Every structure is written in C-alpha cells, then in structure tokens.
C-alpha cells in the first residue's frame, strides 16, 4: 500500500514511533527514523534509516532535513510523534516544565513542517500526521501535557487549511502500553477496576495507532484532512470533555 514511500517518523526508537516505522516498512516504505537511542530499536531492517536527532535542537532538525534532501529529494509523509509528558498543576508548574513540554511536543512539529513542506510538495500523495492525545480532549491530571497537545491539534488544522495539497491530521491515542511508563504502572492500569473507564476493557498496543498512521498516509485516506481521530477503546466517551 505504501510501496516506494519515503516517510519521516520522529520518536522512532520505541513505543508508537517504532511500531509505526515497522508498519510503514512492512507496507513497502523507507523510513527515515528520527530518535536519540537506537539501541532500543533493534534491527527493523534495511529500510529503517536511523537519523540521530534531539528534536528540541533546531540545528539537528536541519541536519535531518538536509540528509533527506540530499538522499531522496522528496518526502511522501511525516509522522511527528516524539514526546513525553510531565504532570503538574496550574499552581505548582514552573517555567522549566512549560518550556520543556513546548520544546518537545510542539516546537519540533512546527519546525519539521516549515522545513519539509517543499519536500512534501514533490510527492504525489503528501501527508502529515501528528500524535496528539485524548488527554487534550478532556480535563485530567496530565497538565501541561494536555494543553500542549491541544496546540498540536490546532496546528494540524492550521496546516490542513493552509498547506494546500498536503493532508494533515491528528491522532489521539488513549492508553497505549509503551516504555514511557514502568511495567508496574501499566500492570496497575490493567486491573479490572481501572479498565472500567475504557469501554473496550483493555489497554491498547503500539501496533494499533501504527496501522492508523499508515492508513492516513495511504491513498485510501486521500480525502481525509484536518481530522482529529481518537484511538482509545472508547476512553474519551467516559471523561469530562473540553472539546
């Protein structure tokens, strides 16, 4: 379905990002994998091209874009997925926490879009997908992560409107078991009592959003743009909504 595609995936060394890279490769794409610790990724094969990059550093982003320009000259899709959350409250938050979440979750997405737009326009089916979160759709204990992820959704809509011909969508995962949290935390979240808040009665796996990202990059999603898509087993239906 994605034969010959050149795809950039950030946060591609573990969790959803690594699963997404593997899914794209399985469907015939070459993945420019952006991350910091490739020892975690194992060996996804020759179509997984590691590009070491701290996405909070603009100079390193420039190096990735230069590599893609010189190596391929075109980009068919981007999955902007890198991220991690820091929990705080409005009365205890610090400027350091605000800056760290902004510089990891939002600023790199803006920079990759602005620097890769011309590469994408050379594709026959260009698309951008960004990982937002169901946390951005409700009031919960993930502040300021949820606020910044709301900005990611807004960025996707802005791009969908203004980057004519480049489809842009936001994917909002719910509880997806990844290495971002220790196994003990996931085990606690997987108890029968905790799963009562998820209508599907289970925690998701990284390959599930990976398949959604691959679909959004494909011609099967050729009229999907500006969408915010939840993949959370129905979790969002049970929480107080802000949108």
Q: Could you spell the SSE succession in H and E letters?
A: EHEEHEHHEHEHHE
* DSSP summary, beta strand count: 7
* CA-atom Rg in angstroms: 17 Å
Bin the strand percentage: 5-15%
Uncertain spans: none
Q: What percentage of residues falls in helices of 4 or more residues?
A: 25-40%
Mean pLDDT: 92
State the strand order across the main sheet: 3-2-1-4-5-6-7
Multimeric state: single chain
Structural class: alpha/beta
Spatial shape: globular
Q: Could you give the distance between the termini?
A: 34 Å
- With helices defined by DSSP (H or I, 4 residues minimum), what is the helix count? 7
Short synopsis of the structure:
Helices cover 36% and strands 15% of the residues.
General description of the model:
Helix 1 packs across helix 7. The chain is an alpha/beta fold and 243 residues long. It is built from seven helices and seven strands; from the N terminus they run E-H-E-E-H-E-H-H-E-H-E-H-H-E. It is globular. It starts with 5 loop residues before the first strand and ends in a 12-residue tail after the last strand. Helix 1 links the parallel strand 1 and strand 2. Helix content is 36%, strand content 15%.
What are its keywords?
243 residues, alpha/beta, seven-stranded parallel sheet, 7 helices, 7 strands, 36% helix
Topology at a glance:
Elements: E1 6-10, H1 15-26, E2 30-35, E3 48-52, H2 58-71, E4 77-80, H3 95-105, H4 107-121, E5 127-131, H5 145-162, E6 167-173, H6 183-189, H7 207-217, E7 228-231
Parallel strand pairs: 1-2, 1-4, 2-3, 4-5, 5-6, 6-7
Helix pairs in contact: 1-7, 2-4
């Amino acid at each position: 379905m994605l034969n010959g595609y050149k795809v950039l995936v950030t946060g591609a060394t573990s969790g959803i990002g690594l699963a997404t890279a593997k899914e794209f490769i399985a469907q015939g794409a070459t993945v420019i994998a952006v991350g910091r610790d490739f020892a975690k990724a194992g060996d996804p094969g020759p179509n997984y091209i590691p590009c070491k990059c701290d996405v909070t550093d603009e100079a390193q982003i420039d190096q990735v874009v230069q590599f893609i320009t010189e190596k391929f000259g075109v980009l068919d899709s981007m999955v902007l997925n890198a991220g991690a959350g820091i929990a705080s409250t409005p009365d205890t938050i610090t400027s350091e926490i605000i800056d760290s979440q902004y510089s990891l979750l939002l600023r790199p997405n803006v920079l990759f879009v602005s620097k890769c737009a011309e590469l994408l326009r050379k594709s026959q089916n260009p698309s951008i997908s960004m990982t937002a979160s169901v946390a951005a759709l409700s009031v919960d204990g993930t502040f300021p992560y949820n606020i910044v992820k709301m900005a990611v959704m807004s960025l996707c809509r802005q791009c969908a409107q203004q980057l004519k011909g480049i489809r842009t969508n936001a994917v909002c995962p719910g509880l997806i078991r990844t290495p971002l949290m220790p196994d003990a935390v996931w085990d606690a979240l997987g108890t029968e009592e905790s799963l009562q808040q998820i209508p599907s009665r289970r925690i998701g796996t990284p390959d599930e959003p990976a398949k959604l990202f691959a679909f959004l990059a494909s011609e099967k999603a050729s009229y999907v743009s500006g969408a915010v898509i939840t993949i959370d087993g129905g979790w969002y239906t049970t929480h107080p909504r802000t949108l």
